[in-house]
Amino acid sequence: MRHGVETGLFQQAAHSPSIFELNRHLGEGTRALVDFCIPCNPYFPTPEMFNELAKNLESVLKFYPSDATKIANQLAQVLKLNPATIAMSNGSTELITWMDHLWINESIAIPIPTFGRWTDQPMESSKRVDMFLLQESDNFELDIDAYIKFIRTRGSRVAVLCNPNNPDGGYLPRREIVRFMDSLADLDLVVIDESFIDFVEVERNPSVAAEASIRPNVVVLKSLGKNFGLHGIRFGYLVANPGLAGKMRNTLPKWNLNSLAETVVFMLKEHAEEYHESLQLLSRDRYRMGMELSRLPDLTVFSSQANFLLVKLAPGIDGGELRDFLVSRHQVFIRECGNKLGMSSQFARLVVRPEQDVARLVEGIRDFSQSRWASEQHEAPSLLMHSA
């Protein structure tokens, strides 16, 4: 049951096409896409902040940015961190790439399913990737002790842990992450990917960035685009001890951040209150969206502490067909997980969005179920006639 979407758009390793690419494919005359695919904060920046950016757009685009060190120093002030422990980049994936080149020499352990670049990048550079499979029967929860045992058995020299994890949103308490880091102090590197940590509500101070800055082999990865709803700017950073952070800063290009990223970083201090309010609104929406999706008979919803929800589709439903139907018929874009290692097309990741967008998603899923049922009813008499 395909509906006019070119399936080649979705055959890109572990990643989805961009909104720009989909809009070009769908053409003019369709409703604006509602994006349930790319994990983004829908409440930040505020409209007032966008207006402020718009007023300064000409100078932002026209003039050269400051070097990365000056921008990182400002970010350190906002975060109340030592500037020597920070390295900023043009997106967190740039840091993953350089970590692979600088610090991953032999092998890397990573629980799967997870963010695709953690497996793809080291495999592309011919490293051994030791994949620790998270079990659906355990709701994809990570057992720290079992993972440490796996790392020791495999002899992995680098270990990665994403908290919360992508795509399931599973979260481990801060004390468990500290125990994990301390248990692996002899490894070449331990990476804690905290790209979605700001969305956690079950613990007041969930980040281990401060702890990473005083440990010899730990790096904490952050993704500002996801938190601040600005994927298009492409900026992220890491926190580590001054030696590791300094090595990364010296490796990265001096002007690897653009003027728009610089402008936003210097706006953050004045808009901290609006940012924290956006996180509260998103937490409310996550609860409401989870309840709404749980009412659909074709979905099983997993608990999440990130800004997305993992769902499992009922037996016989293909996530690729649902995705194509929603894009073509309802202009709703979801993340089908069939190309994620450790998952199948029976799973989909749905970004948390406001109520009116969720209503459109639910309408689309119900429409898909009805169309599928009607198609099955139409095919049933044909099969009976053929057998007769």
In short, what is this structure?
The protein is an alpha/beta fold and 388 residues long.
- Report the end-to-end length measured between terminal Cα atoms: 26 Å
Shape: globular
Proportion in β-strands? 15-25%
How big is the Rg?
Answer: 22 Å
Overall mean pLDDT stands at 91
Q: Please, could you describe this protein's structure?
A:
With 388 residues, this protein is an alpha/beta fold. It has two domains: 7-45 and 273-387, Alpha-Beta Complex (Aspartate Aminotransferase, domain 1), CATH 3.90.1150.10; 47-270, Type I PLP-dependent aspartate aminotransferase-like (Major domain) (Aspartate Aminotransferase, domain 2, 3-Layer(aba) Sandwich), CATH 3.40.640.10. The chain has helices spanning 19-26, 47-55, 57-62, 68-79, 92-103, 117-124, 144-154, 174-183, 209-212, 224-228, 242-251, 259-268, 272-294, 319-330, 355-387; strands at residues 34-36, 86-89, 107-112, 128-133, 158-162, 189-193, 218-223, 236-240, 299-301, 308-313, 332-336, 347-351. The strands form two sheets. A seven-stranded mixed sheet has the order 2-8-7-6-5-3-4, sandwiched between helices. A five-stranded mixed sheet has the order 1-11-12-10-9. The longest helix has 33 residues, at 355-387. It starts with 18 loop residues before the first helix and ends with a helix.
